[in-house]
Amino acid sequence: MNRKVLFFDIDGTLITNDERKIFPDDTREAIRKAKANGHLLFINTGRVYINVEDYIKSDFDGLVMGCGTNIVYKDDELFYRTLPREECLRIALLSRQCRMYGAFEKNDRISIDMEMEGIERIPIFEFFLGTDRRIERDIYSDEFLFDKFAIWYDQNSDRDTFIKAMEKDYTIIDREGDFYEVVSKGFSKATGIEFVLKHFGIAKEDSFVFGDSNNDIEMMEYAGISVAMGNATDECKEKASYITGDILEHGISDAMRHFELI
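User: That's the sequence. What structure does it adopt?
Assistant: Structure tokens below.
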């Protein structure tokens, strides 16, 4: 069997997309078996490095993070792209103007504009502030830096103005509910896969992706074989070449057996 490269989203794919954050035992065992069979296994996530917990990444060969802006293989950083300081400030000020609440993500920190009125109403910020992650709070600090970001809105937000000001240079992914994921154009989970395949000299048809949400669609369209979880969004399922079971119903392990990866 040719060596394959397998790419996995995290939330809703490897772990449950709720406060429990369950990493099913059968999923972890399937990952270990595929690795023992000689395949390369990468996480492919919108999360940045600081937000990928050790219990998730421990069994993987590498990570594609920040929607393709940071790629690590074992202990080597293969690729990293961040935003210049002046652009970070521009976006933070625009977010203030439009009353949009950003979690600005860099590989080693999270930046939050704590001067934003109402930010305490967004649960994700309470979570970040309650962890030991490095948090930058002042948008005028030279340390308020980021690679990409997620941004929440409510009934008082001016989403139209924000999107119009950003859409020329950024891809704005509707994550459904009340937030967008925003990444520089030219970067995505798909570009991360392309980089890894070229780096290891592996053909596209030997790549597999596993995902569940709208920020997985580009990698679904790019990979040789795309697997959508049973709990995936309808848009994600439409792009998949194979639909497996839910995350807690052996979805990953069943799909890997179906394709004879384990």
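The chain has a mean pLDDT of 96.
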